[in-house]
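Forgive a beginner's question, but would it be possible to get a protein, spelled out as residues, together with the matching structure tokens, please?
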Amino acid sequence: MAKILQSDKGNELFTVSCSLLTLLRSIYLGSQTIELLTVSILLMKQITILIAIAVFTSSCGTSRHANNTPYSESLNNDTLITQSLFNDKAATISEESIQKILEGNFKLPEQLRVAIVKLENTQLKKYYWNYWSDEEYLKAHQSYLDLFSEKLKQSLRVIKLSIIPDLLISKIPSFTNIREAAVRMQADIVVVYSITGDIYSKYKFFTKPDIKAFATTQLIILDVRTGLVPFSTIITKDFLSQKKKEEIDNAEARNRIQHEAVLLTINEIGQKMTEYLKINKQ
């Protein structure tokens, strides 16, 4: 009888245990289901946000593409700036004239009457005054003028060549003054040039010093009829040498070396100038 009772109790305990396990399993599966639902809801939210961002980005890109037109096309005639908006009281050219000059065409006459103007450089004159006599200074600059004249005569377009005397040029030259002087000389164009230079010496023991000269020549061509400057150039050259046996002192050598440097600049400018006159024909 006791064994029967014990077996019944064992069966009851087994049954209760199975019921508890079933309950726990249901609870566990229920919690997983809840977690799955929660994750699904979060994923749906994230997908919705991504879709909204994609729609917003595509709409912005469309508007940006629509606005991504060339700058010149997007400007209206009312906002396009075509002339200066600054009030410059010192201006000598009107805004209307500036527009005509920039938009217009320009050509030199086929046959040219040329006038030459030498702008005096006080620095170079002071240098030569210290080392050269007044006669040597005049001879040097006359040789520069002669060389410019030779270069211009090489152009077949030049039919007349004249030198504008200093009497017609004011102490402080201006384009207006030079242009009016050229008109009096009946010149079509004016060649205006200026020369500057300097000397450097490197002294050595028991040998002759090295003397190096630098020269810079600036030149423009001024059209008398229009006042335009169709050609301009600046050339800088150097020349290195030493005192020669026949030269009395280093000062004479410095003068010669400076003169050689200037001649180098004039030769190169002359080539460029004649080439310009050759190319720019009507």
Summary: Residues 109-279 form a domain with the Rossmann fold fold (CATH 3.40.50.10610). Residues 8 and 14 are 10 Å apart (CA to CA). Confidence is low (pLDDT under 50) at residues 2-6. Strands lie at 112-118, 158-163, 189-202, 210-223, 231-241.
